[in-house]
Amino acid sequence: MGEDFRSFLKEMEETGEGGFFRISKEVDTRYEVSAIVTKLEQARQVPLLWFEKVKGHTLPVVVNCYADRGRVARALGVSKRALNQRVSQAYQHPIPPVEVSRAPVQEVVIQGTEVDLKKLPAMIYHNTDGGPYITAGIVLAKDPDTGDYNLSYNRLMVKEKDRLGIFATVGKHLNAIYSKMEERGKPLEVAVSIGNHPAWAIGALAIGAYHENEIGIIGGLKGSPLEMVKCKTVELMVPAGAEIVLEGEIEPNLREEEGPFGEFTGYAIRSAKNPVVRVKAITHRQSPIYQDICGGQHREHLTMATIPMEANYLRVIQGAVPEVEAVRVAAPFTLIISLRKKYEGQARSALLAAFSADLYLKHAIVVDHDIDIADLQRVLWAMATRVQASRDIFIIPRARGSSLDPSAEPLGVVDKMGIDATAKPSLERFSPVNRVPNEVMDRIKLEDYISNFSVLKKA
Ligand SMILES: Cc1cc2nc3c(=O)[nH]c(=O)nc-3n(C[C@H](O)[C@H](O)[C@H](O)COP(=O)(O)O)c2cc1C
Ligand SMILES: [Mn+2]
Questions:
Q1: Residue 452: band (very low, low, confident or very high) from pLDDT cuts 50, 70, 90
Q2: Cα(213) to centroid of ligand 2, in Å?
Q3: Which of 123, 153, 167, 303 to mutate to test the pocket of ligand 1 (most atoms within 8 A of CB)?
Q4: For residue 300, which of 35, 6, 46, 44 has the smallest C-alpha distance?
Q5: Ligand 1 proximal residues by C-beta, below 6 Å
Q6: Residue 213: its pLDDT value, please?
Q7: Residue 153 in domain
């Protein structure tokens, strides 16, 4: 398995997994790429798109890389079904990186007054966006006490040729590291890696404890040590095979307007005072390829975020209740859990574990194993027929959640709701589900009873 963006793109172009299109017609960074992504999604398509000509820019743009589970699975060398388990395993078996002295990402080094972020084809996606955004950057930073790395995706608003607005959620790790430095009155050094293999993306989005090291998890996903190189102007290492790296620092005690931005919740977040990254250097490969992730409620954001989320839920919830069989993040802040209930009380134990597993979780539903959790109609049927609200729903008021939830109180204070939609006391003792006997279903052929059945089939 490769670990860089180019090897990934090559594999996808060769296999065509999930669809791959090179587009030679010129596109505008203002709304046009997001219009094309939106129209394809309306047709239920999420192919990888390679825009060769971008108005006013020399760099090509690639979007939708991680929008398709099959594509991510293939890049990680597993089947779609095995993906959650594979990511879950990587959490348990981290592999540290190795340092290399020369790296493709430093073939070209731009420093000081030469730095010009406006040369990057950053996008404006929606009518509400306050400016062009870089969305596919993995932000690397180090805890000042332990030196441990943290990786996360953070939206970056291009403000000036060397300044970016950054949004870092309260309660997430980058925010915690930044506040540590700010309390000491010192800037936080960061590096932003753009153009990354899916192993980097999925690992960077690993949900876990503060001390859990995303780089190790990415190594675990790859199955061998990653190659990293020292930055030119900050004390950080970055992926040697990245397309583009921005090096800089987040200044302490400085907040400027950032936003508005159309978020993955489907809502535009209002402009607010957020920290600022001062970019000191840009390094890149020869003829770099610019990666973009379409902002807003698009498939790519949802797919890439839910893969590591589900893997984390699985490891935490199965740790507490081994009879949990599968999980599905079905909507923002919403989880469905499939349970083969053996003992009373297990549904609630699973719910408690789920809420401890991820800050963002707001609504969680447990269903019996006879419900296909990919089928929301069946999940609603279970809720309709197996739940009595006063008995089966509990609410934890005013806990920390996501500030991107438009119904939340300031800084993301939310109510958490757990729903036990399992049959009580057990599926075996609950009202039986009616079905036509299997033997009869197998025996009956519609053609024997309805002569022109084939007409019906075509309709
Ligand atoms: C495309 C994309 C953009 C994201 N943008 C942000 C962002 O602007 N701010 C933020 O706090 N989290 C953002 N996230 C979510 C974080 O990257 C994610 O929660 C991560 O696991 C946080 O890691 P940490 O807790 O180690 O800091 C984004 C995720 C994706 C997939
Ligand atoms: Mn982290």
A1: confident
A2: 7
A3: 153
A4: 46
A5: 135, 150, 152-155, 167-169, 172-174, 205, 207, 293, 301, 304-305
A6: 94
A7: yes
Q: What's the pLDDT band for 432 if we cut at 50, 70, 90?
A: very high
Could you tell me if residue 329 is inside a domain? yes
d(Cα 128, Cα 57) in Å, to the nearest integer? 23
- The parent domain of residue 343 ranges over 321-420
From 170, 172, 200, mutation site for ligand 1 pocket: most ligand atoms within 8 A of C-beta: 172
Residue (of 201, 292, 284, 190) closest to 240 by Cα position: 284
Burial category of 225 from C-beta neighbours within 10 Å (exposed 0-12, middle 13-18, buried 19 and up): middle
Q: Please give the distance, rounded to the nearest whole angstrom, from the Cα atom of residue 7 to the centre of ligand 2.
A: 26
Predicted confidence band at 126 (pLDDT cuts at 50, 70, 90)? very high
Domain holding 116: CATH number? 2.30.110.10
For residue 425, report the distance from its CA to the centre of ligand 1, in Å: 40
Given pLDDT bands bounded at 50, 70 and 90, which one contains residue 455?
Answer: confident
Interval between CA 295 and ligand 1 midpoint (Å): 12
pTM, to two decimals: 0.94
Cα gap 419→386, rounded to integer Å: 10
Query: What's at 152, amino acid-wise?
Result: S
Residue 284 host element (H or E) = strand 276-284
**206 C-alpha to ligand 2 centroid (Å):** 7
Query: Looking at the structure, do residues 248 and 125 belong to the same domain, yes or no?
Result: yes
Same domain, 347 and 272: no
Tens digit of pLDDT for each residue in 309-360?
999 999 999 999 999 999 999 999 999 999 999 999 999 999 999 999 999 9
